[in-house]
Amino acid sequence: MFDLVLFVAFPYLAVVTxxxxxxYRYRNDRFSYSSQxxxxxxxxxxxxxxxxxxxxxxxxxxxxxxxxVIPGVWGSLISDPVRLDILEVTGLALAATALFALGxxxxxxxTTPRVRAVTSRADWLLxxxxxxxVALGLWVSLFFRWGGDWYLHTAVPWMTSLAKFQPEIATVTxxxxxxxxxxxxxxLLIAVFPFTRLVHAVIVPVTYLxxxxxxVTWNKRPTRTD
Amino acid sequence: xxIRAQVSMxxxxxxxxxxxxxxxxxxxxxTDREGTEYQWWNxxxxxxxxxYPTRWEDQEEYRGGWKLDGDDLKLNLQSKIGTxxxxxxxxxxxxxxxxxxxxxxxxxxxxxxxxxxDQPTARPVSLITGEFMEIESGPNWDxxxxxxxxxxxxxPNLEGLSDEERSQMEEIQRVVFFYLxxxxxxxxxxxxxxxxxxxxxxxxxxDGIVLVNQNQCRAWRMCISGCPYKKVYYNWxxxxxxxxxxxxxxxxxxxxxxxxxSCVGRIRYLGVLLxxxxxxxxxAKSPDADLVEAQRGIIQDPFDxxxxxxxxxxxxxxxxxxxxxxxxxxxxVKEWQLALPLHPEFRTLPMLYYVPPMLPVLAKVRDxxxxxxxxxxxxxxxxxxxxxxxxxxxxxxxxxFSAGNEDVLTDVYRKLIAVRVYKRGETVGDVTPEEAxxxxxxxxxxxxxxxxxxxxxxxxxxxERFVVPPLGREAAVEEQEGDTYTHKREAGFGTxxxxxxxx
Lengths: 226, 503
Description:
heterodimer, A: 226 residues, mainly alpha, Fumarate Reductase Cytochrome B subunit, 10 helices, globular, B: 503 residues, alpha+beta, Alpha-Beta Plaits, nitrate reductase domain fold, 2 domains, two-stranded antiparallel ribbon, 23 helices, 15% strand
């Protein structure tokens, strides 16, 4: 019963919260949709923290999603032991990078008075959750090897079943508690996403790539008659 | 031809006394909030000097504006892909240290300090952290320090100068400086707009005012690097970029911007220019030496029937065309060619123009007497040679106002000198009519023009200085929201909730 709450009810609740609150906030308080950059107040430590953190975590997140959405392709990718080795090592390196960089960002917020002045409680909550989640992830990849493989047979069927609205939790309930915590941590982050500055992750300005450089706004664009 | 209207500006530097009334007027209206204390949408710099933020003109460091890459006009900052790649950390962003840390004083201590042998003091307190701090710089930190080795010597515009020219400016008895008031240039080819990946910065089509949409800004902070004039500022508290809005709420109710209205020296002129939007890119691609001339070329004659016809066809209102015909800016920039853009080599086509300051002439101390160069010479010579014997090297001014083209500045100064000589002939009487004519020929102008320049420079009324076009606020409300009556009761400027973090 408790497992059902954790692995069925909680993920659904998390996703519904994220979507509902995210849309509510976008519609009613768009001003608050911001990355809230603090680079203007502190530059040096940020340069060592921000870029490595973002690139490492995006690649790790991308690998998780890739294996979840197209498990077949991922399966054939890791079918070769050499490729599996490479992915395992790369993943470990990225996780270590992410943890180090995030640690640096936390240190920066703690020790720089100017940055601490613009840090809200929600920021601290988010930082602690992220730090715990990345640390758990690194722990899992260190002590439960070949995650690239067993992820396909445990978490992927579970999340796929959730997406199909036919919850199947047998593949995850027997896993070690560290792994379970990492899984639930992921959904907890989804749940807190709309209440924190993490909203900046869904407003990545990709349209810039095909937009003309100049933006001119008109009350009503005159239609030329000549 | 795609004729559009631009509310444009002229600052007459000869009249600026460096009183900072403009800066204070602006601050009191727009930037007295948390996160904006350090922002001076209008600031007045001492030149030579490093400016605000420090060394803002150094584009090797900040990479603002545009660059010519073969036949292409590219953002100096980075490509579009580069923008997304550098979004997590912007290498070209100035930090608050390049401006100054805003502070107040612990005044309370003056009243609550226990009795003692010393006077209590009010220590400075940071407005960011609330902690005691040491003041290391502040607004106008290098005010009037035109000859200082610490500030003035670091002016990026001095780089092209010879050692002789440098020592000429720095020698203590000849120290020379002038004031440079700066606001947003509301450029025709704004690189802040082009650099913003979220399209939060926009140029208004009807009047050309460049604004940051506060609801669309996501703190990607590329605009701050992108603007070569560093006239977009980051609100460290709300996490949004902000900039000079040319007091559009005032313009829309028929008043000039606050910095214009409050100007003690009456150095500021505001008016409409008509320009051909189809030619922006072509003009921005001109070689350095031709930039000023090309920028004059994009400004269209508001009396030309073809231009008027095209403007009407493009939906420019009749009242805007009328304002363009009365525009003092058109006279200074295009008709008389006296006003020049600041750093045209940034290729943003700035729409704020400067009439360069008259130059003090060289002087020597001889036998304990301070003598102006050529003062012994006969007749007009001291006046006419004031350009050749100027203490401020033309090359320095050319670095500021004409992308290095000294001929452009020479022409401007010949005109300014001609007006001076002509009027001296009228009022002082020690210049003969022949000599006055000679000066006018050198300045390439008629007596009528000299008189008109004199009048608009020295004796203009408020209505002559500020020709604010009707901006059609009511029509805009109807267009955007439908019902002017509801709008009148409900709308104000700004957001309905305070611009603070709430999540």
